[in-house]
Design goal:
Layout (H helix, E strand, L loop, with lengths): L1 H18 L50 H4 L10 H15 L9 H22 L1 H11 L14 H15 L4 H40 L1
Helix pairs in contact: 1-5, 1-6, 1-7, 3-4, 4-5
């Protein structure tokens, strides 16, 4: 239990850094990707880049793209705020479609693609479900690299709170104290998650306002 609490403390630190590094979205001009064809029969493939695709001709599962957008894959808006239940439903739906158990009698290449898709869907689900990894992924998509945090960079009040909690964790085992600390960390996580959500949404509104004024 103590190891889990220390891990959550580490996540709190990153959450604080995220709230200070909310990105400004980038505009990406339209592109003309090359037409894709089925690896099995050569038929042209429809759009929906990043999503699991089946050939309309032979129904073969196609390989995942090189850098799929995890938000697009999970049918979510590119936002820090996500609907956990909707995310779970999408996860289950995708896994039913591409899980390796369904491809046991298919060609080896298609079995391999199934494993790749299944792994990617798991990664997408875990990344977007967790507020910390979701925020870091949003920063990555918008070209923002969070600075490596050190104790010198951390907010002094926040750092003091962490030091006090670590001192309590180092004391002889006391279930009441551990439950109190767990509750404190949970409340702090919720507060910081709200701060991060607000920071991302402020920047999104600011960006949209600038775009509208420029038209």
């Amino acid at each position: 239990m103590r190891a889990a609490l220390r891990q959550r403390l580490g996540r709190l630190r990153w959450a604080l850094r995220l709230s200070e590094a909310a990105p400004r979205p980038r505009c990406v001009g339209p592109g003309s990707p090359p037409a894709l064809r089925c690896w099995s029969c050569g038929s042209p493939l429809p759009g929906a880049e990043g999503l699991p695709r089946f050939c309309p001709g032979c129904r073969a599962l196609q390989p995942p793209g090189p850098r799929p957008d995890l938000f697009r894959l999970m049918d979510c808006d590119r936002s820090f705020r996500v609907d956990a239940q909707q995310l779970q439903r999408r996860f289950r739906s995708l896994q039913r479609a591409v899980h390796p158990d369904r491809f046991g009698r298919r060609p080896p290449k298609e079995q391999y693609y199934s494993e790749q898709h299944s792994s990617l869907i798991n990664k997408a689900y875990q990344t977007l479900l967790n507020p910390l990894s979701r925020g870091l992924y949003l920063l990555e998509l918008n070209g923002v690299e969070p600075a490596q945090e050190t104790d010198c960079d951390a907010d002094s009040v926040f750092l003091t709170e962490i030091m006090e909690i670590n001192e309590k964790l180092a004391e002889p085992k006391n279930e009441d104290i551990l439950e109190e600390i767990e509750t404190l960390i949970k409340v702090k996580q919720e507060e910081l998650t709200k701060e991060v959500t607000a920071a991302f949404e402020r920047e999104k509104i600011c960006f949209l306002s600038q775009e509208l004024r420029g038209r």
